[in-house]
Amino acid sequence: MEDRPQKAHHAPHSGKKAEKKDAAKGIDRKTHGFNVKAFAPKSGRKAREMGLRKAEKDQTKLHVPLVDRTPQGNPPPVVVAIVGPPGVGKTMLLKSLVRRYTKQTFNHVKGPVTVVAGKNKRFTFIECNNDLNSMIDIGKIADLVLLLVDASYGFEMETFEFLNILQCHGFPKVIGVLTHLDLIKK
């Protein structure tokens, strides 16, 4: 160990002392000793991929979509289904409800009718046919069911079938409406 020569002292290349010496000499190490090629990609294909990736990152920073969680526009309409046997007055009730909200008369009803009842309130009235498929579809989408019953005749089998279908498909609110009260015999 004694026969080995001592290593020469190396001046610091980084840190506070080196920065002071460089400032005194007027050397800027940030640009002076930086080798640009040391961090370059080895192939042109890789360079292109890195350039595209950098451009994509920059674009995504500029176009970050802001998620607006406030309800947009109008809420969906309340679906009101009018259900009952034939001849009980479904169409008459639908026409009178439309006249109540719009102050306009209806000649004949074809399909669902959407009525704007207020600034943020809409109703869609659907008249249900007296077949099983229509009842199942209405039971799935209705928010409110107006169940019409002929008071002079009483409940029919289709009425109980519809209530059974509603139990299977997410029971909505049901309001019973009695019609033909003037035909009840005393």
Task: Please provide a brief summary of the model.
It is built from 6 helices and 5 strands, in the order αααβαββαβαβ. With 186 residues, it is α/β, with parallel strands linked by helices. A 5-stranded mixed beta sheet has the order 2-3-1-4-5, sandwiched between helices.
Mean pLDDT over all positions:
84
Give, in order, the helices and strands: HHHEHEEHEHE
Q: How far is the first residue's CA from the last residue's CA? A: 130 Å
Tally of contiguous helical segments: 6
Radius of gyration: 40 Å
What class do helices, strands and sheet pairing give?
A: alpha/beta
**Could you tell me the number of beta strands?**
5
Detail the poorly predicted runs: none
Which descriptor suits the 3D outline?
A: rod-shaped
Biggest sheet strand line-up: 2-3-1-4-5
Sheet with the most strands? 5 strands, mixed
Provide the β-strand percentage band: 15-25%
Helix content: 25-40%
Q: Could you please describe the fold and organization of this structure?
A:
This protein has 186 residues and is of the alpha/beta class. The protein contains 6 helices and 5 strands; from the N terminus they run αααβαββαβαβ. The protein has helices at residues 16-25, 29-32, 44-62, 90-102, 132-141, 157-168; strands at 78-83, 113-116, 122-127, 144-150, 173-179. A hairpin with a 5-residue loop joins strand 2 and strand 3 (122-127). It is rod-shaped and about 135 Å long. The protein starts with 15 loop residues before the first helix and ends in a 7-residue tail after the last strand. The mean pLDDT is 84.
